[in-house]
Amino acid sequence: MKRPPALLLIFAVTAATVLPWVASPPGSSAAVLSVDAWIGVSSTRPSLGCAIDMSVELRDSGHAVDGAQIEVALHIEGSLVSADRGVTGDNGVAFLALQTFDSAAGVRHWVDVNVSGEYFTGFPVVTADSGSCNDAYQLIEASGDVTITPSSTSSSPASLIDGAQTKVWVPAYAQQRNLSCEYAAMYIATSAFGEGISEYSFDNEVGLSSNPHIAYRGDINGPWGRTDDYGVYATPLSWALDGFGYRGEVFYAVGDSDALTTRLDQGKPVVVWLALWGDESIRETLDGRTFTITAGMHVMVAYGYDSSGVYLSDPGSGTYRYYSWGDFMWMWNVLDGMGLAVSPY
Prior knowledge:
By secondary structure, the chain is mainly beta. The protein contains 6 helices and 18 strands. The strands form 4 sheets. Strands 10, 11, 12, 15, 16, 17 and 18 form a 7-stranded antiparallel β-sheet that branches. Strands 1, 2, 3, 6 and 9 form a 5-stranded antiparallel β-sheet that branches. A 4-stranded antiparallel β-sheet has the order 5-4-7-8, with no helix packed on it.
């Protein structure tokens, strides 16, 4: 349901903000490297509501560092505003983004850049009440020792799915609008079976309603993370898929991970609704029907799993992700494990 800030598992925030990460694969070994880093920042003076797009490149003696876990966090005096995480690909680069929607104009923020859970470097950002989102690009250089643990979360599809017990090929694709992750997920899931259905094809098919179980709730170009401009749930998407020659099986796992793995074993990518901020749920009633919505909701496509976690394609960042089973179920259970398994008729 978002253009990043990806996962905000909000724990204690210190001056060097460290975010939780997925568990390392069994048997992996760590290496200490002396790396050079180049951090490209789209703006250090962004307007409120702008995304701060970032690229983090790591090299060791000129060689790209693959599989390094990168975390970025935007905060004001230790109060977390936004965060994102990613893994460097075979080119040594990870792409991330931070949001300023919950900031105040004219306030000095600080961005932490962490590598493998350890603080690496940081820089200031000052938000403005007007102006461009990309008018103050900055390239930041830093060097230091980091501990790299080989990870199955590399952003290249081949290394991502290596070792998964079950996998269904799907592409990495970035949603084209701020709140179009559900429609982008439809493109990702249907691409497993041929040419994917454009996210724009769902606009008129799904319609609008204040109840996301009926149709899309709010403005698809609105700010992410709120409950007024929000998104849509599984059932309306299943209705729309039927018109495109696909079957969308709606289910609620309610804490049962087998509900996901069974469908993946059948070769079906599964669209999942995740509460990235944890349980921020509220209940509303419309036309006598009561339903749940939650701040920080986002949609991804699960395409594989192994004993340690779940492999997903995230339209918010246009990258592949891997979450441990604990982190994944913590987010998925908030909306009762809502899922949509996609397959052709």
